Amino acid sequence: MNKVYIGIGSNVGNKLENIKSALIILNKNEFIFNTKISSIYETIPYGTIDQDNFYNAVIFIETTLDLFPLLNFTKKIEKQIGRVKRINWGPREIDLDILLFNNVAYSNEQITIPHKDLHNRDFVLVPLLELNDKLIDPNSKKMFSEYLSELKDKYIISKFKFNNSEKSESIK
Fold this sequence. Notes:
Residues 164-172 have low confidence and may be disordered. The protein has one domain (2-170): 7,8-Dihydro-6-hydroxymethylpterin-pyrophosphokinase HPPK (Alpha-Beta Plaits, 2-Layer Sandwich), CATH 3.30.70. The protein has 4 helices and 9 strands, in the order βαβββαβββααββ. Strand 6 (106-107) and strand 7 form a beta hairpin. By secondary structure, the chain is of the alpha+beta class. The protein is globular and about 35 Å long.
C-alpha cells in the first residue's frame, strides 16, 4: 500500500466547497483508503500576489495506485471541479499536488517527489507536520520540521477546523 501526502489549495469560487468536493471524489475512488485531512489554513498567495487568499491543507491517503495513475487521477479531479489554467502560481479553483509518495525521491518532466518547493512553504509544511511530525525528506534525510523552523517567509494567516468553517485560531 502506497502512503501519499497531497497538498490541496483553492482561491477561486467557494474555496471550502472546492476542497470538500475534491475530498469526496478522492474518497469515492476504490483504490484510495484511509483518507485524512489536516486543518485548513487561510494563506496569502505565494508567488503572484494580486489574487485572493488561499485555503490550503494536506491530505494523507493510502492507495494501491502507482505514482502516475494517481497523478492522472488528481489532474482529472482538478478538471472536474473546474480548474482553469491561467498563470503559474496564479488563481485556481483547486490545486492538488502530490507532495510525498512513500519515501521516494523521483523527478521527471511531469513531477518531482518530494514536491520541489515543499520545504519553502509554511502552508504546506505546517499541515503536513500536523498529520505526521516524523516525516523525513528522502533527498536530504532532514526532518521536515527542521525546514519549518528555518523558514523566514510566513504565508499562513489563520487556521480552520475542517468540519467547521469557523476560524479556530489566528496565526501571526
